[in-house]
Automatic annotation (TrEMBL):
Name this polypeptide is given: Phosphomannomutase
PANTHER family for the chain: PHOSPHOMANNOMUTASE (PTHR43771)
InterPro entries: A-D-PHexomutase_a/b/a-I, A-D-PHexomutase_a/b/a-I/II/III, A-D-PHexomutase_a/b/a-II, A-D-PHexomutase_a/b/a-III, A-D-PHexomutase_C, A-D-PHexomutase_C_sf, Alpha-D-phosphohexomutase_SF
EC number, as in UniProt: 5.4.2.8
Source taxonomy: Bacteria, Bacillati, Actinomycetota, Actinomycetes, Propionibacteriales
Length: 464
């Protein structure tokens, strides 16, 4: 029997195919999705897309069978990036399901679900209920008796590209040459459509759709997967390099020297651009982004709001605050004008517009948004994450009066002082404790990092 609870994570569904996720599970998930979201009483249809993984078409078809078995209709947009699926959900005002395992290795697949208008489906907003119904269907068998719904196919790739162009117009920028590493993922599908015309010349890398990832993992957050892009940027003298993850909802940037530009700097740069259009607006940033992000938002007249990590949290907070934009340290970027959904492609267009509207090279331009030194995310497997976090808190709580240390629990444990801060939190999807440290200089960062790591590794079962 499939461990349903094990593959239904905090924000999506993810598992090894076919041992954990197969067509039977996908079919049950489709029927459960209709029931939990009350699709038959509302829009009456679900939009479905899928990525380039070998198992994706069959899993998407099985999910569609589950949906139509209830009497609801399906609109199949075919091969798509995750943000293209969010576009379809927003444009058609339908709940949606995207078959992808994002940046995970080839043996995985999964489902990202959303309500109509790309609103999130998270653990507390339907995902647990869907998991319960799937587990029930796998035990008792699927319900029968409904008149089946209909399936239609709809190509929305051009409409997706047109919508992005409406939001960020590149027609007036100086000519740019940009290397794009699609990692054999869905960027190879969307980038040609988005950049078909205009002043940006694309040098493509690994645009062939191949869910076996023959060149490198489609996970640009890992520095080893940026090496090819960095070399190609230097070799060609390009103005910039972009790397997309497997489902192309995240975008990473390197400058003309091949040096990575941090997602915090991108968040700050896009925030400044959005504030120029929407003076005084609210901008969200998760608590792992650089301290420079809220500083720059405030300096440009905006209202910075600090949030927990994760797209469900950010989308909910965007709705509550009417924020125009939000950014995460993991290179997820959210836009009010894109149904509050995350889209790496729209962030990339903002980056290119910022670069092309002035004459300085990328490294010099984006250095304006880098003020501190960060450790990057450091992951460790520990025997008991809660116990380890409690021990770290005990160590630092006694310093509050003498060292000006403050502690908060917005998401995990954050400890901060005047010149540094760190956060430790348990992963929602993996058995890991994540550490992020930032300080005014490298020596300060390394001192705090090593001090906290000593506490963590004392409880470690394995460093990852």
């Amino acid at each position: 029997m499939v461990d349903v609870a094990g593959i239904f994570k905090a924000y999506d569904v993810r598992g090894v195919v076919p041992e954990q996720l197969d067509e039977t599970v996908a079919r049950a998930a489709g029927a459960a999705f209709v029931e939990v979201l009350d699709v038959l009483a509302g829009p009456g249809a679900v939009v479905i897309g899928y990525d380039m993984r070998p198992s994706s078409p069959a899993l998407a078809a099985a999910f569609a069978e589950g949906v139509t078995s209830t009497g609801a209709d399906v609109i199949d947009i075919g091969l798509a990036s995750t943000d293209q699926l969010y576009f379809a959900s927003g444009r058609l005002d339908l709940p949606g399901a995207m078959f992808t395992a994002s940046h995970n290795p080839a043996q995985y697949n999964g489902i990202k679900m959303c309500r109509a208008g790309a609103a999130p489906v998270g653990a507390d907003s339907g995902l647990r209920d869907i998991a319960d119904l799937v587990a029930k269907a796998l035990t008792e068998g699927p319900a029968t008796g409904s008149t089946p719904g209909h399936l239609t196919h709809k190509d929305l790739l051009t409409a997706y590209a047109d919508h992005l162009h409406d939001l960020v117009d590149l027609s007036g920028i100086r000519p740019l040459t940009v290397v794009v590493d699609a990692g054999n993922g869905m960027g190879g599908h969307t980038v040609p459509a988005v950049f078909a015309d205009g002043p940006v010349t694309i040098i493509p890398m690994y645009f062939e759709l191949d869910g076996n990832f023959p060149n490198h993992e489609a996970n640009p957050l890992d520095p080893k997967n940026l090496v090819d892009l960095q070399a190609k940027v230097r070799e060609t003298g390009a103005d910039l390099g972009l790397a997309f993850d497997g489902d192309a909802d995240r975008c990473f940037v390197v400058d003309e020297q091949g040096d990575p530009i941090s997602p915090s700097a991108i968040t700050a740069a896009v925030a400044v651009r959005e504030l120029a259009k929407h003076p005084g607006a609210t901008i969200l940033h998760n608590l792992i982004t650089s301290k420079a992000v809220p500083e720059l938002i405030a300096e440009h007249g905006g209202v910075p709001v600090r949030t927990r990590v994760g797209h469900s949290n950010i989308k909910q907070k965007m709705a509550e605050t009417d924020a125009v934009f939000g950014g995460e340290h993991s290179a997820h970027y959210y836009f009010r004008d894109f149904w509050r959904a995350d889209t790496g492609m729209l962030a990339a267009l903002h980056v290119l517009a910022a670069l092309g509207e002035q004459d300085r090279p990328a490294g010099e331009l984006f250095a304006e948004y880098e003020r501190y030194v960060a450790s990057g995310e450091i992951n460790n497997k520990v025997a008991d994450a809660a116990e380890t976090v409690a021990a770290i808190e005990d160590t630092y709580s006694g310093r509050s009066e003498t060292d000006g240390v403050t502690i908060d629990h917005l998401d995990g444990l954050t400890v901060s002082a005047g010149q540094w801060w760190f956060n430790v939190r348990a992963s929602n999807t993996e058995p890991l404790l994540r550490l992020n440290v930032e300080a005014a200089d490298r020596a300060g960062m390394e001192r705090v990092r090593d001090e906290v790591l000593a506490l963590i590794t004392g409880a470690s079962v394995e460093e990852n």
